[in-house]
Amino acid sequence: MAALTIATGTGNWFSALALGVTLLKCLLIPTYHSTDFEVHRNWLAITHSLPISQWYYEATSEWTLDYPPFFAWFEYILSHVAKYFDQEMLNVHNLNYSSSRTLLFQRFSVIFMDVLFVYAVRECCKCIDGKKVGKELTEKPKFILSVLLLWNFGLLIADHIHFQYNGFLFGLMLLSIARLFQKRHMEGAFLFAVLLHFKHIYLYVTPAYGVYLLRSYCFTANKPDGSIRWKSFSFVRVISLGLVVFLVSALSLGPFLALNQLPQVFSRLFPFKRGLCHAYWAPNFWALYNALDKVLSVIGLKLKFLDPNNIPKASMTSGLVQQFQHTVLPSVTPLATLICTLIAILPSIFCLWFKPQGPRGFLRCLTLCALSSFMFGWHVHEKAILLAILPMSLLSVGKAGDASIFLILTTTGHYSLFPLLFTAPELPIKILLMLLFTIYSISSLKTLFRKEKPLFNWMETFYLLGLGPLEVCCEFVFPFTSWKVKYPFIPLLLTSVYCAVGITYAWFKLYVPVLIDSAIGKTKKQ
Question: Membrane-spanning regions, if any (predicted)?
Answer without folding.
Answer: 12-33, 104-121, 142-158, 188-214, 234-259, 335-355, 361-378, 429-449, 461-483, 489-508
